[in-house]
């Protein structure tokens, strides 16, 4: 399960419906052009929290059907409705997804016992492995080393997608749990995380910059840090432009400029203005 995983974006049509042809093209682009090691499906970048359960299932089905066993697949099943999370976990497991992931439950400021119960409840109901999805900036849920240790006591919890700029905590988790999988979640910090010996990374910008992410990760593993820093620099130039222009919409426009039918984002995410579409085309020409 090591390596570079794209946090897969999803193609939606003008009315917010899943565009199957476009989604298949995004999957193929990631496998054939970006050459990533796996796909993280229905995460933040897939607009998971803007979709109905039926739409999420459709995405899981289409992606698995397109991928077969070409690359590893992780299904993000986290939902505030715990019954839905269990149902999606069972659904993705039956489809053959290699592992599950679930965002920490958010919005109601759950205490740690509640967070732990959420993961254990999902795992009691499914025969699959779990990667904790920790993204404090969006969920407001921060966990310390002891709390990660408690979650890791469940043998089915095999790792964490660590999307936080806390390299002290990342190092402590790495040191304490050499056998758990740690995926870096911030693409702009990939090199720093790789130096701390993470097992891989999961990121949105890999949809358009996966090849460079693979280079950074491989160079860091070979301790070729100066070369890795050069690639991270170009990567961060691109990421800075993407973030300034509108994250997911710009990734979609960059893909469209390369002939991939990446569609639109679901409301309430807004459309890019014409100026910003032109910016994205310029990014595609410059970086891709
Ligand atoms: O679940 C997911 O789609 C992710 O893996 C999210 C990933 O951590 C991204 N975070 C968000 C909030 O989109 C990053 O890849 C992020 O977009 C990137 O580092 C740019 O800041």
List keywords for this structure.
288 residues; alpha/beta; TIM Barrel; eight-stranded parallel barrel; Schiff_base-form_aldolases_AS; NanA; DapA-like; N-acetylneuraminate lyase; N-acetylneuraminate lyase activity
Q: Label the CATH architecture.
A: Alpha-Beta Barrel
Strand-and-helix sequence, N→C? EHEHEHEHEHHEHEHEHHHH
Number of domains: 1
Radius of gyration (Å): 18 Å
- Could you give a short account of the major beta sheet? 8 strands, parallel, barrel
> What portion of residues is helical?
40-55%
Low-confidence stretches: none
Helical stretch tally: 12
Structural class: alpha/beta
- Tell me the CATH topology: TIM Barrel
Strand fraction:
5-15%
The fourth-level CATH homologous superfamily is Aldolase class I
Gap between N and C termini: 27 Å
The coarse silhouette is globular
- Strands of the biggest beta sheet: in what spatial order? 1-2-3-4-5-6-7-8
Counting DSSP E segments of at least 2 residues, the number of strands comes to 8
- The mean pLDDT is 98
- Broad CATH class: Alpha Beta
Bound molecules: ligand SI3
GO molecular function: N-acetylneuraminate lyase activity
Binding site for pyruvate: 202
GO cellular component, one term: cytosol
Function: Catalyzes the reversible aldol cleavage of N-acetylneuraminic acid (sialic acid; Neu5Ac) to form pyruvate and N-acetylmannosamine (ManNAc) via a Schiff base intermediate.
Architecture overview:
- The protein is of the alpha/beta class.
- It has one domain: Aldolase class I (TIM Barrel, Alpha-Beta Barrel), CATH 3.20.20.
- It has 12 helices and 8 strands.
- Helix 1 links the parallel strand 1 and strand 2.
- Helix 1 packs across helix 2, helix 9 packs antiparallel against helix 10 and helix 10 packs antiparallel against helix 12.
- The longest helix has 21 residues.
- The radius of gyration is 18 Å and the shape is globular.
- The chain starts with a strand and ends with a helix.
- Bound molecules: ligand SI3.
- One of its GO terms (biological process) is carbohydrate metabolic process.
- Keywords: Carbohydrate metabolism, Cytoplasm, Lyase, Schiff base.
């Amino acid at each position: 399960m090591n390596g570079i995983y794209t946090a897969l974006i999803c193609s939606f049509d003008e009315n917010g419906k899943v565009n199957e042809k476009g989604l298949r093209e995004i999957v193929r682009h990631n496998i054939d052009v970006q050459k990533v090691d796996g796909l993280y499906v229905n995460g933040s970048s897939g607009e998971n929290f803007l979709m109905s359960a039926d739409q999420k299932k459709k995405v899981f089905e289409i992606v698995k059907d397109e991928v077969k066993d070409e690359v590893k697949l992780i299904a993000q099943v986290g939902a505030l409705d715990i019954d839905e999370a269990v149902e999606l976990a069972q659904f993705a497991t039956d489809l053959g997804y290699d592992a599950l992931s679930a965002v920490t439950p958010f919005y109601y400021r759950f205490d740690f016992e509640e967070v732990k119960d959420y993961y254990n409840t999902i795992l009691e109901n499914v025969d699959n492995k779990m990667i904790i999805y920790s993204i404090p900036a969006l969920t407001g849920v921060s966990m310390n080393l002891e709390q990660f240790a408690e979650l890791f006591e469940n043998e089915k919890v095999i790792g964490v997608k660590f999307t936080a700029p806390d390299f002290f905590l990342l190092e402590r988790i790495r040191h304490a749990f050499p056998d758990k999988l740690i995926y870096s979640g911030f693409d702009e910090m990939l090199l720093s995380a790789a130096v701390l010996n993470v097992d891989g990374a999961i990121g949105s910008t890999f949809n358009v910059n996966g090849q460079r992410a693979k280079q950074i990760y491989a160079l860091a593993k070979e301790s070729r840090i100066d070369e890795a820093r050069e690639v991270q620099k170009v990567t961060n130039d691109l990421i800075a432009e993407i973030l300034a222009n509108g994250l997911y919409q710009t990734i979609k426009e960059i893909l469209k400029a390369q002939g991939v039918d990446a569609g639109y984002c679901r409301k309430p995410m807004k459309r890019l203005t014409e100026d910003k579409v032109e910016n994205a085309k310029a990014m595609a020409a410059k970086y891709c």
